[in-house]
Structures are given as C-alpha cells and as structure tokens.
UniProtKB/TrEMBL annotation:
Coiled-coil residue spans: none
Keywords: DNA-binding
GO cellular component: cytosol
Key word DNA-binding present: yes
Name of the protein this chain belongs to: BadM/Rrf2 family transcriptional regulator
Gene Ontology MF, one: DNA-binding transcription factor activity
Any Pfam family: Rrf2
Domain of life where this protein originates: Bacteria
DNA-binding recorded as keyword: yes
Gene3D superfamilies found in the cross-reference section: Winged helix-like DNA-binding domain superfamily/Winged helix DNA-binding domain
InterPro entries, A to Z: TR_Rrf2-type_CS, Tscrpt_reg_Rrf2, WH-like_DNA-bd_sf, WH_DNA-bd_sf
Length: 142
C-alpha cells in the first residue's frame, strides 16, 4: 500500500500546526519549511478546515491553527481524511458491493490481517506523539 502525497503532506502540515500551539501558522511558512508547493498545501488545508481539524484567522497575524489539542488527533484520522479508506484491497471497501467470493476466499484472511495491522498502527499514534518525535529529531527541548 502506498499513501499519496496528499496524505503525507496533510500529516506534515498538521505537525507544523501542532508545533506552534496557540499560534497561527501561515501556509507559506509550512511550504518553505517542508519544501512543498504552497498551492498544493492550500488545497489540503481546505480539506482539513472543512473537516474542522484546523481553523483560520484572517489578518496580518493570521494563518491556521489546530481546532483541538494534538493529542486528540490520530495519524489514522488525518490519513483517512486525506486518503479516504485505508483498506489494502478494493474488495474490502464498504461502498463497493461485496465480492461474491469473499466468504470462500482464503486470501481474504491476509487482507483482513493487513487492514487490522495498518489500523492498529495509525490509530495508536497521535499528533502529539509526532510533535514529540519532531522535536527530538530537531534537538528542541520542551
């Protein structure tokens, strides 16, 4: 399974916002720091804003900030918002008519275990965990 740039960039943008609690962060700051197109980040922040994950403030000191504490967001929440479903194979999608072979398909065991493993990982890591790791990597102390 590969995650798209949209999912990866949404996660990196949320980390940037979480690194500055109580402050507004401008998109161009995130774009510069993460070496990502600010036009692409504007599209992603719209998705995050519509979902209520971030809020905006206008004006010279404006920008975006997290709507909730970083501990209230999981990696899974952010990736599912940006990517949609994280299931490893399309026959597991709920929106799609179930595969007629699902009940007799031995490989379904693999896909279900893989789906559970992915969910267990992404749903157990919070944005606060990633902020802690980012600060460690940058040598920033709290």
């Amino acid at each position: 399974m590969k995650f798209s740039t949209k999912g990866r960039y949404a996660l990196r943008m949320m980390i940037e916002f979480a690194l500055r609690p109580g402050e507004c962060t401008k998109i161009n700051h995130v774009a510069e720091r993460q070496d990502i197109s600010d036009k692409y980040l504007e599209q992603i922040v719209t998705i995050l804003s519509r979902a209520g994950y971030v809020k905006s403030r206008r004006g010279a000191q404006g920008g975006y900030y997290l709507a909730k504490d970083p501990s209230e967001y999981t990696v899974g929440m952010i990736l599912r918002l940006a990517e949609g479903s994280l299931v490893p194979v399309s026959c597991m999608e709920e929106e799609i008519n179930s595969c007629s072979k699902a009940d007799t398909c031995a490989s379904m065991m693999v896909w279900k275990k893989l789906d559970k493993a992915i969910s267990d990982v992404v749903d157990s890591i919070t944005l606060a965990d990633l902020v802690t790791e980012q600060k460690r990597l940058e040598g920033i102390e709290d």
